[in-house]
Sequence to fold (309 residues):
Amino acid sequence: MSKTNLNAEEFRVVSYKKSKIKRTVVVDTLIATINEPLSSVTFNLENYLRRIEAAKQELIPSDLYSSVLASLRESFQIINIIKIKEIVCFGLGRIGECMIARYQLALLLLIKDLYNAKVVAYDPIFTDNDSEILKSLGISVLHGNIEGKYKLSEKSATLFYLPHCPKQLTNNLLWANWGMVLNYCVIISNSFTNVIESNSKRHIEKNADYILNISPFVTELPIINSFKYYDIFNDLAIHIFALENLSLISQDLWQYHIEPVYTDEDLEFVKNKIYEDYLIDIFERCMLIALKPSDKSFTNYGALFRKET
Fold:
């Protein structure tokens, strides 16, 4: 997503005073409670679906879509893929509110229709409205923030669609599937080449070491972007991992399989724990405003809210 559009930001860290409350048994309820008002304010599903369909129709005759199709066909030929079984998408953003997200979803739907594949999606900022839109389009919404660490459950071709997601999410995805199973992964994301060339070696070693380590063995196919809204799809590329390239990797490199950890100052996405603490902090502030300090109901609820799992 474009960094210049606030509505388009997903998996981004929001600065706030960190809550000291531990994870609670009511986090899921809290998320639903906060999202509930958004779902009830003049939500017209048919109107959103019409806009998404219009975006699809704009993309179909575009050179951008032709480039995506050509690069996908070439990718599948190189790694001998006949059929994509599943498409996994991270970081679409607020599809009900953001034009960038709507067009990126439109491209996802065109690829879904083309390969008749199952699609699952997740973004920590999805609202109930967003989830309803996706479900009506045949897309399942993942529950829980796995921070991009989606591990293939079986050796079947899977397309990962990460439109302008932070490099750390792609790095996490590579870590989760580190090994020869990468041959079954096709990743549409920001260009690995540009990620490495636009950052210092020290920064990449700290924040995208798996991207750095796999880069000599990845085949990157560019997506030619001439779409009228250039920022929506700029810098995207298709990445594949051919068996003949993966077989050149030393066992020492494969055995380097340390789960990525990022410092707070470097973090580029919303972590699972941080997002929960952020929601808890918002909820507490709302409760303090709504109830008098002497109201025992807040104290009693707070005791339940702080109960650890």
Remarks:
- Confidence is low (pLDDT under 50) at residues 1-40, 274-309.
